[in-house]
Amino acid sequence: MKKLFTLLMLTVMLTQALHVPANAQAPNPGGDASVQFTNVAQVSTGFYIASGGIAVCDGTATISKNYKSRLTITLMKSKDKSTYTNVKSWSKDFTGVGTKSLTKGKSVSKGYYYRFKLVVRVISGDTVIEKITSYSSGVAYGV
């Protein structure tokens, strides 16, 4: 059990070192501030459009407390990079502590900018006790 805990903590620390955290925000007038998650150690997104026009969305969250969690990915498109509309959504439920990941692909059309939204929900019973929203970087496809 002690080895499992040590391995888990090492995994969390390495994951934090390898991903750009979604928990940073711009400084406020009173000084630097950052959002502190209660049940999630890390959230990250990865997005690209593969050959053949397949948008690949990858959302990852490291859950630090023993709760149910749900990752939802929503692929979005825009003509002008300012107003995005939803294309397709996927969700997956998980249980327990650790790194949870959801990767989905969808064929997309040329002439748009694409990005995706990742929503991480931590659930106790039937109640969402924490909700984190993060956006991937945008990608132009045939624009």
Can you walk me through this structure?
- This protein has one helix at 2-18; strands spanning 40-50, 54-63, 68-78, 85-95, 98-107, 112-124, 127-135, 139-141.
- By secondary structure, the chain is mostly beta strands.
- Strands 3, 4, 6, 7 and 8 form a five-stranded antiparallel beta sheet that branches.
- Residues 1-34 have low confidence and may be disordered.
Jot down its keywords:
about 140 residues, mainly beta, 5-stranded antiparallel sheet, 3-stranded antiparallel sheet, about 55% strand, disordered N terminus
Structural class: mainly beta
What is the residue-averaged pLDDT?
81
Helical residues, percent: 10-25%
- Over the alpha carbons, how many angstroms does the gyration radius reach? 17 Å
Question: How would you spell out the order of helices and strands?
Answer: HEEEEEEEE
Distance between the termini: 53 Å
Produce a short descriptive summary.
The chain has one helix at residues 2-18; strands spanning 40-50, 54-63, 68-78, 85-95, 98-107, 112-124, 127-135, 139-141. It has 143 residues and is mainly β.
Task: Please outline the helices and strands.
Blueprint: H1 2-18, E1 40-50, E2 54-63, E3 68-78, E4 85-95, E5 98-107, E6 112-124, E7 127-135, E8 139-141
Antiparallel strand pairs: 1-2, 2-5, 3-4, 3-6, 6-7, 6-8
